[in-house]
Structure formats: structure tokens, C-alpha cells
Amino acid sequence: MQQELKQVPYGEPSFAYLREAGYAYVDKTHFIQVLEQCGTRFPFIVRPRRFGKSLFANMLMAYYDKAAAGDFDERFSGTWVGDHPTPWASKFLVLKLDFSGIDGGDRLVNNFVINVLTGLEDFVKRYLPEDSQMQELLDESWSSPAALLMSFFRLAQRKLDEGLYLIIDEYDQFAQEILSKDPEQFRAMTGAEGFLKTFYACIKNYASRGFVKRTFITGVTSISLDSMTSGFNRQLPAFFYSLPRGSLKTATVA
Length: 254
Known about the structure:
single chain; alpha/beta; four-stranded parallel beta sheet; 13 helices
């Protein structure tokens, strides 16, 4: 009997859709165990564009999200981690932020806030769908991304008796564009009182408190975080742990 060839997706970042639709998938799920055993709770992975970073980030979300526990078998059946699940499978509250497509210019901070709100709203929808206080917080007008995130963390910590897993995809996409066009604006947002530095300082603060249990942050370069000399990276140097070059290319077809 001739085996049916699966369609090969191009530019499809949704792990859940890829698996549900039956597309061909190169199994990289064994790297979940590698990340858990790499010696840091805060891995920072930089790789070239079109390298599968967004798909990998979405795979992590599908794996750790306790709200998606009922879909675990369908999404991971036949994969390495499906046969060798770690103890943390479907055990986290997952907050995923995606900073791709943020427009610079005069409305940069506002556009950044909107992207953060998008991730927070998705989190609330999955874990606190009927919570009026959380909805009121999200409906407020915010001019500071750090103030928004800190207020969210403070309220979520009171309502949820467990920490969260923070995933940030394309953390540096907008920053690279700004650096190439307006170095002064880049220095301002990553400087001592810059909105980007204070935003990551908030993450560092709640990581040190134990509410942010783990992070996975990915992008193309380390330039944005290297520029924040006393931000998240300085206080948690293990954040710059990186898998060996080329390691994410190694995989078996599932």
C-alpha cells in the first residue's frame, strides 16, 4: 500500500493547528527535556529568521499549558516527548507574548502596550475568564508597559496559587528596526529609565519572587538585552544560556 504523503507547511507558526491538520512535522520535542535540564530556568535562544523559533515557542506553550491538558495526547501523539513526557507536562499557567509587528515611531510605547495586553487577555481568557477585577485591570488605559505588567502580576499572584511560565517570541524584532533607523530612540528605550528596560526589570523582580517560575525568550540577536546594562540579564546571567549552534537543526521526522 502506498503511503500517503503529508503536506509540508510553510510559515505556519501554530503547533496546535499543524498537528490537528495532519501536516508533516519535524519532531523537535526532545529539546523540551534539553531545556528543562540545561541548568537555568531562564534560557535565551537567538537564531536566524525562518529557523522555526515561533513554532518552537508555540510547541512549548502547547506542552506546558495546563488549560490545554485535554488536548495533550492528540497534539503530542507519535512525538518523542509524547512517549517520554516530563513531570512538568501540562503543569503551568503559560503567559505568551509576541513582539513581532510592533510599529515604531511616536506611538511605539502605545503599540508595545497593545501587544502586551493581547497576551494578557489570552492568559485571562484561559485561566480567569470570569474574573471581574482582572477584566477591569485590562480595560484600564495604560501608558507604561512595566506598570501594566506589574499590576497584572500582583493581581494574578493573589488570585492564582501557582507561578507561571513566561514565553516571549520575537523579543527583538521591533528593536532591530528602531536601531537601524533611529539609534537615539533605541538608546532611550533601553537606557536607565527606558520603557523596555523597566519592562524586563519587572520580569526579573517577579522571577526573583518565584512567581515567574520559568521563561523562554527568543529572537534573532542579543543586542536589545545586551544594551540594558542592569536589566534582566545582569541580575540573572544564566538568562544568556544558549543551546549549541546548530543543535535545533537536528531532528527526526514524525
